[in-house]
Design a protein that fits this description.
Length: 85
């Protein structure tokens, strides 16, 4: 059998930093509009992620891009890539 190489899809999100009180960790909220299947109306959905920020560069209110990585702690599975604003 031939060896199949599958490309791992690395998920990236963009969100706003809501908390910068922990050392090297930021809480980022990602908001999205979704459609309700029955009522056919849009509603706002949001989720919080704990993101690893190695150099403590981001502050509360910053818009950031982060991506999936290996588990860094119990809750952290995301790494900061770039500060947008």
């Amino acid at each position: 059998m031939g060896s199949q190489k599958t490309k791992k899809i690395i998920r990236q999100f963009q969100g706003i930093v809501t908390s910068d009180k922990m050392d090297k960790t930021r809480v980022v909220i990602v908001s999205a509009f979704k459609w309700h299947p029955k009522y056919k109306k849009q509603y706002k959905s949001s989720k919080k992620y704990k993101v690893h920020d190695e150099k403590n560069l981001s502050r509360a209110g910053n818009e950031v891009i982060f991506q999936e990585c290996r588990p860094l702690s119990k809750d952290k599975r995301w790494r900061l890539i770039k500060i947008v604003k």
